[in-house]
Design brief:
four-stranded parallel sheet; Rossmann fold; about 50% helix
Amino acid sequence: MTESHAKELSDLEKEMLVCTQCGYCRSVCPAFEDQGWDSSVARGRVILAYGMLKDRFDIDDSIIETLYQCSTCGDCERRCPSNVCIVDIIEKARKELVDEGHALERHKKMAENIEKFGNPYGESASRAEQFGKTPKKAKVGFFIGCTPSYRNQNLAKASFSILDKLGEDYTVIDEVCCGSPLQRVGWKDEVIQKLVDNNLDSIEELGIETLVFSCAGCYNMFKNHYPEFRELKFKPVHITEYLAEKDLPLKEYPKTLTYHDPCHLGRHAEVYDAPRKIIEKIPGANFIEMEFTRETARCCGGGGGLRAAFPEMSERFAGKRVESAGFADVLLTSCPFCVNNLNVGKEFIKSDIEIKDIVELVDELL
């Protein structure tokens, strides 16, 4: 083990030893529900991380797979009676794996694309210019994000459309990947630092005071992890928080709706009320909560590098989440990764439910 990562894991040694192996995490872990092995649940992964710290075994494929078959959803932390920082332990263990040359091939490719093109998809087109936008001085900024820029462009277009309809004076920035995908899979801090500096320099040059995000992953990265690299001189706000406080004259929508809380927006960033405030503004809508919601919301399997490395496993997570929303006409969420993976789950279980980002629905009705 390298000295740097030995220190990173040793800083969490007390956290690992606090785990009492009670097994409460088994009741909420989607990976354990899918795999059925103790190594696939938080307490098993904590043991593996501790074994790595103490050099108790040689790292093999089974250990690598186990540590990466976690979506880092954080539901185990909510359930843990000892308040162990399980996600931190897993991400630090992944840093060691990457540093020791055990990165997964799909994650390697993603990282190479981010370093070369500034996004995980290897796209060379300028994200802002695709939407006819150029950076300018403004107090409100909008961070497009990689996935809305290159894969879920309807989300970016809907976000711009809403801001325009509301008469907001806003700007885009000269952005690159926020670094969240690399942070989740254990990439080097030096690589992430370059992305952080690029984005923060661009934001500060434009005099932005409030930065709005439609991607939950980007928002969580800025809110909870950027301050670990550099001080923020602006306020990060998810677009649901931004819109929840606005007067939204929406058209009637007489359908039964439910809402899936993204892990990055919910448990990680603690934004639960804002999306529901927006739904309450929709005339004629019948809103019904899912069985597991807010803090207890089950993960769709789209995060933590799981979808990239283990797509079939991620698909099964998503299928179960969509199945639990079967009573609704429309399943809303507020994260492009959740939209994409829930649609995969929809196809997997052959459901006819409609899946939308809440921003797209607001734009339709505004």
